[in-house]
Amino acid sequence: MIWEHPSLLFLLILPVLFAALSYFFGKWRQKKLRAFFSDEMLRRLSNPVWSRGRTARTILLYLGITLLVIGAAGPKIGSEIREISREGVDLIIALDVSRSMQAQDIRPSRLDKAKFEISSLIDRLQGDRVGLILFTNTAFLQCPLTTDYSAFRMYLDLASTDQLPFPGTDFNAPLQLARDTFRSRTRQEQQAAQVLLFISDGEDHSPSIEFTLNQLINDGVFVYTVGIGTQAGAPIPIYNQAGQFTGNHVDRDGREVISRLEPDLLREMAQAGRGVYYEIRRGADRIDGFTAQLVDLERREFATEQFSDYANRYQWPAAAGLLFLLVSFMIPVYKPVKIER
Asked: What PANTHER family does UniProt report for this protein, alphabetically (predicted)?
């Protein structure tokens, strides 16, 4: 059993307080009356009490109050299957901003192309909330879930490979942050479908993402991925603070590093997450199909959903409490008095 409003259970002390106050008030009243009247006079002035009736009324009165408090606290027992309507999509876009995203095998660069595609996607959204996560070997919530697309574009424009100056790429970090963001939604906000769009060139240096990915999928999140880059690859340019090209990235041996698209893990993520893997190999490639997937997903999977929840049984104690109170007021507590003539 759980309670809808457990804080109200402290009111269960009320019947005890009422009983104590009634007892002490009765004693005080008797003491005051005896100060002015004899016992015989009090007997003549007072109606004879029907002790059984008074006892029954007292028990039913306090029992009724107790049951009303229990009903107000909302006892939830057992389970019930409820059907709710889903509304809209909550879309989180995880964007790789590691140094390899500066490679120019896709013009003007992988990152610039990804930002262009995201901006085009936002143009086609209609009332769905969207959020932005940037990641390298760590992750940062650049923009929380919002329907303010102008604000989202502002945060998107600020995304750069200098924003998270940590080398390497760890897919676990954005996956965990996306899960935490979805789970932080209010109950009303959870009426929307959960979709993660993961954009990267596929270079992942984390040991394994299986556990984190499965947690996300078990929470009902659909995972779509976009691989951006080419198999031939390209060097990774380096720019100074003024934005001027200073050379290409080299390894410890002084050899130029070539960054290539690594699609295998991205494909596996989409397959496990009941999504679709898209690939951008040329500047003309688009992800227009993803918008259609969002519309179809909402219509197909989230028109309605059934879920099991604790059944609220407040009606039973509330109804019993009201009945006991009603009956208690109907029980006589005084014996009928015969008038002598």
From this structure: LEUCINE ZIPPER PROTEIN 4 (PTHR22550:SF5), SPORE GERMINATION PROTEIN (PTHR22550)
Condensed to tens digits (0 to 9), the pLDDT of residues 159-197 reads 999 888 777 889 999 999 999 999 999 877 777 889 999
Q: Amino acid identity, residue 101?
A: M
User: Tokens 């898209």 belong to which residue?
Assistant: 278
Q: Which of 186, 193, 265, 185 is nearest to 222 (CA)?
A: 193
Question: pLDDT for 233-255, tens place per residue?
Answer: 999 998 888 778 888 888 888 89
pTM equals 0.63
Where do the structural domains in the chain lie, given as residue ranges?
2-81+311-330, 87-302
Give SS3 for 47: coil
d(CA 54, CA 29): 17
In the chain the first and final C-alpha atoms are separated, in Å, by 63
Q: List strand residue ranges (DSSP E) for the chain, in order.
A: 2-3, 75-85, 89-96, 129-135, 139-146, 193-200, 222-228, 234-235, 237-239, 245-248, 258-259, 277-280, 304-312
226 C-beta neighbours (distance < 10 Å), count: 27
| CATH class of residue range 87-302 | alpha beta
Calpha distance 84→172 (Å, rounded): 32
